[in-house]
Each structure stands twice: as C-alpha cells, then as structure tokens.
Amino acid sequence: MKENLPLVSILIPTYNQTKYLEKALISALNQTYTNIEIIICDDSTNDEVEKMINHYMVNHKNIKYYNNGGPLGQRGLLNGEKCFNLSNGEYINYLFHDDVFYRNKIEVMVNYFMCNKDVTLVTSYRNHINKNDELVYIPKKILPKTTKITGESLGAFMLHTMANIVGEPTTAMFKKTDIKDAIFSYKGRKSRSYVDMAIWFNLLLKGNAIYIAEPLSSFRIHDTQNTQNPLVHILGAIDCYYFLTDSYLDKDFLKSKEEYLKLIKRWLNFYIGKIKELENYIPKDDNELKELSDIKKDLYYCYAQSIKCLISL
Asked: How many alpha carbons lie under 13 Å from residue 131 in its C-beta half-sphere?
C-alpha cells in the first residue's frame, strides 16, 4: 500500500535547539500517512541536534540528516533552500523546528491534492502555542468552512491586506514540480523575510488553493524566534514592496494602475515608521553592521520609488 502512495518530503531546517525540535520530529514521525521522508538540515554550531537526531535514526530509516558544519547564512534561508534541494518527494511540507503537526495533517492534505488536479496549494487553519504547548492565540479563520479558492483571488487578497493569510511554512503543502525557480524567490527576486509568501504567490499563479477550516498544525511563539529580530520585520517591508510592484508590472494579481497606487500608498503609510526604527537599531556585530548598511539602501530605495510614483499622480 505504501508503494502506491506519493512520497511526501517533510523538511526541517534547524539551528541550535533540541527541546522544540524533538517535539516537531515526533509529530512528523507520528503521521497517519506512511510514505514520508524527513529531511533535516542542521545549521547548528554545536552537536546537540546531531546527537538527538542520531537516537531517532536508529529506528526510523526515513530520516535523512545533514550537518552543515555551522550556519550556511542569510538567517537560515540557505538552510531552508538546502532542505528543498535535497528532497525527493512529489509533495513538500516544511516543518519549522519549533512547530508541530497534527497526526493526520499529511494524509488530509494529500487527499485534497489527489481529488483536485487544479490545486497547487493546500493550507489549513492553525493554532498558536507557547513554549509550554499551551494555546496562546486563536486566529480568526479565513473562511468558516473548507473551501477551494482561485489562486488569482487569494493572491490579490494577500496583496490588498499585506498579510500572510495562507500561513507560515509549516502550515501548507505543495507539489515540488510547481516550483520552477529558487524556492524563496518571486519574479526572479529573492525574498529575505517573507519567504513563505514568495512561495505562496508562485503557487497561486499556477493554480487554485484549498483552505481547510480545521486545525492541522500549531505555530509556536517564543522569545528566541528569528522573527523577533527588528531587522527581519524591516526586510519584510522591503519584500512587501517588491511583491506589490512586481505583481503589478506583470499584471499578476494587480491589474490596474489605480489599484497599484492605492496599495503603494497604503504600504508607505504602514511602513513609514521603519525608517526611524532602522536609524535607532544598534547592530550586534560587524556582520550585522554590514547587513544594516545594505538594508538601509534597499529600504530608502523602496521609499523613494513609492514617493516618486505617488507624486506622478
């Protein structure tokens, strides 16, 4: 029976922690779906993750572990790319090392793909948990019941709201062959913060989406997340500008100039405070000092272009 099921690759990029990673790994191993490979790429600066993973690899031959010998760079993005490039599955589902899957997640999502040939993205409602696995936030559902949504309408809605309503990488599943370029790029431009949105936009250009109204994963919120770094939020502002602009230039999701200008004005008003935040940021080391300089150039360019665009009205 296993041989007749399409292979699903669960991708776990990890770095320097085992407490949440072990829970994430167990949730992947406990899936009701049987034909799974688990790819773990390790950016750690110590051997704690390797020791823990080796313990599980003794009894689980579907775990494939890769030690990078230290961080590959770009705040873990290169590690995430490596996971994707090493995967063999027909279907892909990231599992970030502090999140967890419900036991039936993979089975439910694969079934939706098998029954809907026009679908390129399957996502679901998800819970938010804290370091103690307690529910800390119950997000509003996109829709009250499981629904198929056209890719064009969902992509446009994401741009209009400037929100990742599809969910974090852990939340969604997609087919590997639907990603033609670098996994975290959109319109040939590499995203540096909202990398999941870059994936979703690419997939929504190619087909429709299924939103499952029941929770199938949990997103963990804790103090040591990469997303707590202010520079990550500023990089997100830059990503968002290019999502809007590149989508409009190719007339994907955004069709009219009026619509684009309205959203650029909203982007400018929403992110104008990032200039002050950037000026007040104190870099932690020489590497971050250089990164800060590059981010300033990018952000100021986006501001200048958006203001120039609006003045031309």
From this structure: 7
- Residue 126 zone, left/alpha/beta (φ > 0; ψ -120 to 50; rest): beta
Does 191 have pLDDT greater than 90?
yes
Pairing of strands 208-220, 147-149: antiparallel
Please answer whether residues 136 and 62 qualify as being in contact, where contact means their C-beta atoms are separated by less than 8 angstroms.
no
Under DSSP, the state recorded for 7 is P
The pLDDT, as a whole number, for residue 278 is: 82
- The model's pTM is 0.94
**pLDDT tier at 153 (50, 70, 90 boundaries)?**
very high
The residue written with tokens 């949440």 in the block is: 20
Q: Cα(230)–Cα(243) distance, rounded to whole angstroms?
A: 20
pLDDT digits (tens, 9 = 90+) for 237-264: 999 999 999 999 999 999 999 999 999 9
CA-closest candidate to residue 27, choices 133, 113, 174: 133
Those residues whose C-beta lies under 8 Å from the C-beta of residue 228, and which sit 6 or more positions away, are none
Q: Kindly give, in sequence order, each residue whose CB lies less than 8 Å from that of residue 72, ignoring residues fewer than 6 positions away.
A: 43, 78, 79, 82
Among the listed residues 124, 215, 170, the one whose alpha carbon sits nearest the alpha carbon of residue 28:
170
What is the model's pLDDT at position 3? 61
pLDDT of residue 158 exceeding 80, the answer is yes
Of the candidates 94, 132, 89, the residue with the CA atom closest to the CA atom of residue 220: 132
Residue 121 burial (CB count, 10 A):
26
What single string gives the DSSP state of each residue in 136-188?
EE-PPPSSSS-EEE-HHHHHHHHHHHTS--S--GGG-EEEGGG--S-TTEETT
In this prediction, residue 93 carries a pLDDT of 98
